[in-house]
Amino acid sequence: MKLKEFAKQLGLSPTTVSRALSGYPEVSEKTRKRVAEEAVRLGYRPNVNAVRLVTGRAGAIGVVMGRSGEFQFSEYMSGMAERLDSEDIDILVSPIAEQGGKDESQLYSRLATSGRVDAVIIHSPMPDDKRIALLHRLGMPFLVHGRSETDVPHAWLDIDNEGAIRRATSHLLDLGHRRIAMINGRAGLTFSLHRDKGYRKALEQRGIPFDPRLVAHGHFTDELGFRFARSFLEQSPRPTAFVAGSMMTALGVYRAVRSFGLVVGRDISVIAHDDVFPYLTADNMVPSLSTTRSSLRAAGARSADLVLQLLSGRPATEIHELWPVELILRESTGPLPQASE
Amino acid sequence: MKLKEFAKQLGLSPTTVSRALSGYPEVSEKTRKRVAEEAVRLGYRPNVNAVRLVTGRAGAIGVVMGRSGEFQFSEYMSGMAERLDSEDIDILVSPIAEQGGKDESQLYSRLATSGRVDAVIIHSPMPDDKRIALLHRLGMPFLVHGRSETDVPHAWLDIDNEGAIRRATSHLLDLGHRRIAMINGRAGLTFSLHRDKGYRKALEQRGIPFDPRLVAHGHFTDELGFRFARSFLEQSPRPTAFVAGSMMTALGVYRAVRSFGLVVGRDISVIAHDDVFPYLTADNMVPSLSTTRSSLRAAGARSADLVLQLLSGRPATEIHELWPVELILRESTGPLPQASE
DNA sequence: GCGGTCGTCCAAATCGTTTTAAATTTCCCA
DNA sequence: TGGGAAATTTAAAACGATTTGGACGACCGC
Predict the structure, then answer these.
(1) What is the CATH number of the domain that holds B220?
(2) Which of A206, B69, B203, B267 is deepest in the core (most CB within 10 A)?
(3) How confident is the model at residue A96 (pLDDT cuts 50, 70, 90)?
């Protein structure tokens, strides 16, 4: 069913019908209502591609997915989808062609010039992320999920990684721990740097020297959690507490601790960052895991919302949101055991 | 840069340029080459929306994402993305409006009539899935990831869930286990039924009666894995082996076993299905987890491939792929302990 | 009853391509 | 050298909507 045909059935011109459906004021309330009703009855829906061509809008938001298929991804997308459900806007997922390098910027260029999307969301930025400058230069609206230190104006939404890790570390210090190991995210990413900063600040406040041998960087996988934790535990004196970057990391840490015949929550304290997944919950771990918590799904929903604001004209420089992170104490954290002192 | 402008710069007509770029035979090799080179040099790319309007093709494949944001999702999508990287085809993610019910079919209708996608992939089908009949009726090409028993012709790609679980169960029986519990997927879904069938067949072959108290259904979460496993272990006599539906489920099972003071691989054997995630590997669990294994990423890549075949005219009735599943034995499975007999 | 305003509605241009149908050029052979 | 087939190229008509610039009455005040 095309507009022309539909209009004829109504005895109206295509113009009027189009306006009625788009909510323009030049059409009487009576006919608007009639048009709306008939559209439903006859099942008329404007052809998306025609609308896109003529308006120049793509009706889609692009999300670039890393090669490694992070487990966090679907949770964030669920959130976005939740928010975009009511709008007539799609989510477009683009794979990254090659890790880092030139191909990545090519992907963004193509995304921008092809007119496939109206805006892009980028993840895991670095302090001087080249993508940000690129997208700005291309004139493509974008939101950064995370933060960067570039001068290029850009909208962003981030959680307070520094504060979260600072509080987590401080809490462990309060409990008497002095050798606290941290398994951080990939080196060079802003959030990893922020977490590092939070960790150091907490130590600094107590006048405890920073020991680089207690910090590791890498993907959030159970394997790295396990390996790093083991290598930390082999040190002497060994750490008595861990700050783990993710739930998966924490799984590895738990295993590593057990493999040394130690008990989490008694011999070794663990705090991890939790993005709140329906399929893996900190409460259910044994012992239950203390976490710094922030809903990734909520971040996804809000991201979609902010992109919509961006598209409707709100200046990117106004869009900066820093979310606080909760610290949830459970059984995996406890006072420094006497013997270890 | 528009086609008209670009053509003028080349001293050719838009028609010729369009044909040269689309690889039609009516243009001489010499000009084709020149056009291609200049297109790169001047950065001309056809406007996607104009192409879509005139060709009627959307240039996108739709994937419907469940509300619950399954952790498997991004791995499958990564696979799809991998395959579609070379094509000029997008992946469109649609959230499901409401769980089940009427809204779901509305979503598919809209997806089909709006011209947003050329094909759709549906997941976790049921034996008489309404979506299949609906999409068929709407004339929208689609691929079912999983299987169904409907008469409606449809393309599908599935793994041999029945065979996998049958082999897993048989292996446990070989080891002497007699009370084997199974934590299956959500009730009513085809793959759950297939797994159930595989489980029963294995028992039947040994003449062991099926005990419904040893089977549970639900989402693949660590929480359900833990709860179900605990409730099974409370039975008397308790099961000596578990078949777990997913890696997350297995995590819960491991915890439950430990919470009873039992040891996986010695007191209790566990086999789980593994979709092969980079962030959670069976090899790294302690003890390492025996699995039925099938790469979800590969399935995603192949799905994209099959959809492309579908779109280029291959009949849906020809597209049926059943993938075998590997059985990988590791430390979590062992002979029935003497004391338990 | 006339000119102006307002509220509705419409004809036609437009978006940037692909593709049909026709026009041109090239080429080969009688 | 001319005729016709084959190889190139082109002009113009789609595709299905939005939107610009008017047109047509109805209504009001003077």
Answers:
(1) 3.40.50.2300
(2) B69
(3) low
Nearest residue to A310 via CA among A173, A154, A185? A154
Pair A137, A38 in one domain: no
Residue B213, pLDDT above cutoff 60: yes
> CB distance B45–A114 less than 8 Å?
yes
> Would the pLDDT of A340 be above 60?
no
CA distance A208 to chain B (A): 33
Which pLDDT tens digit goes with each residue over B37-55? 999 999 888 999 999 999 9
Tally Cβ neighbours within 10 Å of residue A99: 10
Count of CB atoms situated within 10 Å of the CB of A72: 21
Distances in Å between the Cα of B52 and the Cα atoms of A31, A120, A325, B3, B149 are 32, 21, 44, 15, 35
B332 and B219 share a domain? yes
**Is the CB atom of residue A266 positioned under 7 angstroms from any atom of strand D?**
no
Same domain? For B245 and B332 the reply is yes
Q: How far is the CA of A28 from the C1' of D30 (A)?
A: 29
Query: A264 with A205, same domain?
Result: yes
Q: How far apart are the CA of A297 and the nearest CA of chain B, in angstroms?
A: 9
Between CA B22 and CA B19 the distance in angstroms is: 5
Closest CA in chain B for residue A285:
B255
Which domain does B244 fall in, by range? 161-294+326-340
B151 with B228, same domain: the answer is no
DSSP string, A73-120: HHHHHHHHHHHHTTTT-EEEEEE-SSSSHHHHHHHHHHHHHTT--SEE
Q: Which of B68, B85, B110 sits opposite A278 (nearest CB)?
A: B68
Given this model, what pLDDT does residue A103 score?
Answer: 67
Do B69 and A58 lie within an 8 Å CB cutoff? no
Residue B93 domain-assigned?
yes
Interface test with B, best of A6, A40, A44, A49 (most B CBs within 10 A): A49
Mean pLDDT (chain A, rounded): 92
Give yes or no: residues B149 and B66 share one domain: yes
**Taking CB atoms and an 8 Å cut-off, how many pairs form between chains A and B?**
170
Q: Does residue B49 belong to any structural domain of this protein?
A: no
pLDDT of residue A339: 62
Q: How far apart are CA A17 and CA A28, in angstroms?
A: 11
The predicted structure's pLDDT at residue A54: 93
Say which CATH number the domain at B22 has: 1.10.260
The pLDDT-based confidence of A97 (bands split at 50, 70, 90) is low
Residues B295-327 have pLDDT tens digits of 999 999 999 999 999 998 899 999 999 999 999
Please count the structural domains in chain B.
3
Contact B226 A284 (CB under 8 A): yes
Tell me, yes or no, whether B140 and B90 share the same domain. Answer: yes
B184 & B221 share domain: yes
